[in-house]
Amino acid sequence: MEFGGPVPERINGRLAMIGFVAAIAVELSKGQDLFAQITEGGGVTWFVGTSVLLSVASLVPLFKGVRAEAKTEGIMNADAELWNGRLAMLGLVALAFTEYVIGGTLV
Hints:
Radius of gyration: 16 Å
GO cellular component, one term: membrane
Transmembrane segments: 44-63, 83-102
Keywords: Membrane, Transmembrane, Transmembrane helix
Number of strands: 0
Helix content: over 70%
Protein name: Early light-induced protein 1, chloroplastic-like
Strand content: under 5%
Number of helices: 4
Subcellular location: Membrane
Distance between the termini: 37 Å
């Protein structure tokens, strides 16, 4: 649970993966950019609720003694999850920056 440990990065990565997919889905379906989704669409309430729910759900296996690092075989392993989370974090930042620069939706 310490700052440099794997738990904070896993939780942030999971939230970023869901956030990135949700942001692109809303852009495609409603045509709202990321900033409009957050300010006009009630996005803050959904973000806080989802963050709390996923954070607690991510900690349950840890409290039961199950370590995500133990899963090392197959394509759905601990390293793949970390890298997907990192890429999703970068994707959200890139999406926000691009939309800010062009002044509208990306897709």
